[in-house]
TrEMBL record:
Annotated UspA domain residues: 1-140
Pfam family, one: Usp
Assigned protein family: Belongs to the universal stress protein A family.
InterPro entries for this protein: Rossmann-like_a/b/a_fold, Universal_stress_UspA, UspA
Record's protein name: Universal stress protein
Length: 143
């Protein structure tokens, strides 16, 4: 049993599956669902968003709504979660949160990004697995 599990989420099916896995296959005193707002994620910008404060405020609102969805998903699996929101490079922020929250285990989806972003930036899950201060389970999609 892990005392504290960290589940980083990004809105992808992979991260939903990671939360389902953390809820159904791991026992823990606490599950922390973490979303990282990446201020440099240009793909997230919309035509209506203005750079600067408005853009970040929009991202914050979207992130809060996303975390609420994950709370509901966890409840469907009979567990409660603590949600956390942070900013920065996803891999670095996840590793930092694992340290800050003193987690015993990280459960992360195998990928969120696709296409050229993944080629240029690498896999967040891969980086987390290599550098995390604790054990990591990478959840692959159903095949």
């Amino acid at each position: 049993m892990a005392d504290r599990i960290l589940v980083p989420v990004d809105g992808s099916d992979h991260s939903r599956r990671a939360l389902q896995t953390a809820a159904t296959e791991f026992t823990a005193d606490e599950r922390i669902v973490l979303h990282v707002v990446d201020p440099f994620d240009l793909e997230a910008a919309t035509e209506d968003a203005v750079w600067g404060r408005e853009f970040m405020e929009q991202r914050e609102r979207e992130a809060e709504a996303l975390l609420e969805e994950y709370e509901e998903l966890a409840a469907e699996h009979g567990v409660s979660v603590r949600t956390e929101l942070t900013h920065g490079s996803p891999a670095r922020a996840i590793i930092g949160a694992a340290d800050d929250f003193d987690v015993d285990h990280i459960v992360i989806g195998s990928r969120g990004r696709s296409g050229i972003d993944r080629v240029l930036l690498g896999s967040v899950a891969e980086t987390v697995a290599k550098r995390a201060p604790t054990s990591v389970t990478i959840v692959r999609p159903d095949r």
